[in-house]
Design goal:
With about 240 residues, this protein is an alpha+beta fold. Helices cover about 30% and strands about 35% of the residues. It is built from six helices and 14 strands. Strand 12 and strand 13 form a beta hairpin. The chain binds cytidine-5'-monophosphate.
Length: about 240
């Protein structure tokens, strides 16, 4: 597969065209941002970890019936993926209260929900990715009703599969963000990445944060936490 021109550079990844119009190459960077780009830094080796972790988790999800954009890992930072039209929503699933949930509602941290929550943010940096309700998603025709149902069903399935997998690694899956896209025939598939940048992962015993919150909150030991979570995953994932 030939890597052609760079199409896009995001906060954590670059995207390249290939000689196949239906496939793209994503390249994971070590750059880290938080608070909509207001905090910037680097996490050495993060791109390598996020590439491998996202690919392993997406392969697992495919087996569990969630279609994804994953095609093939090309090297330690680059992966071949299906080209999609991204649905401009961040789909957030929560099992335990923390982060913007607690901030928005003045709700205590660390409450385990009886049922996972699903919420949507409208992907728009200028507007700071505002929370959006289903009727507004439909009013702006960001998705059809059927697509939104599919997205919600897949998001909850991802939660079931990953919660169980992370539990087997001694890790609590607190919350995470997903993005979906449409193939040319309109099929909805999981896109973007699943990594410690986009998930909150706490050690099940000690509650130690093993994710990007260490960077966001200046907790230190960021690189070590990424290495630790990758090690935990590899010890359990034999696929
Ligand atoms: O900040 P908040 O509590 O809304 O984050 C919920 C989850 O979504 C966290 O796992 C966070 O890492 C992820 N997230 C993300 N990208 C954003 C916002 C949140 O990956 N722009």
């Amino acid at each position: 597969m030939e890597k052609k021109e760079q199409l896009y550079e995001g906060k954590a990844k670059k995207v390249y065209a290939t000689d196949d119009p239906e496939l793209l190459i994503v390249s994971y960077k070590d750059d880290a941002t938080a608070f909509n780009g207001k905090k910037k830094g680097t996490i050495a080796g993060k791109g390598i970890i996020n590439n491998e972790m996202s690919n392993r988790l997406m392969r697992k999800l495919e087996k569990a019936g969630v279609p994804t954009h994953y095609v093939e890992e090309l090297n330690e930072r680059e992966t071949l993926v299906k080209k999609v039209q991204i649905v401009p929503l961040e789909v957030i699933v929560r099992n335990i209260s923390t982060g913007s949930f607690c901030k928005r509602y003045g709700f205590p941290e660390g409450v385990v929900f009886d049922e996972p929550t699903v919420e949507y943010s409208y992907k728009n940096d200028e507007l700071n990715d505002p929370l959006i309700c289903e009727s507004h998603v439909l009013a702006m025709k960001l998705t059809t009703r059927g697509e939104l149902e599919t997205i919600r069903t897949y998001a909850l399935r991802v939660n079931e599969v990953l919660k169980e997998f992370w539990r087997s690694c001694g890790v609590t899956l607190v919350d995470f963000k997903l993005e979906f896209g449409r193939l040319p025939d309109g099929t909805i598939i999981l896109a973007d990445e699943i990594s410690p940048d986009t998930s909150r992962l706490w050690d099940a015993e000690t509650g130690k944060k093993l994710d990007k919150d260490r960077f966001r909150q200046d907790l230190g030991g960021v690189e070590d936490a990424y290495a630790e979570i990758m090690g935990r995953l590899k010890a359990q994932d034999h696929a």
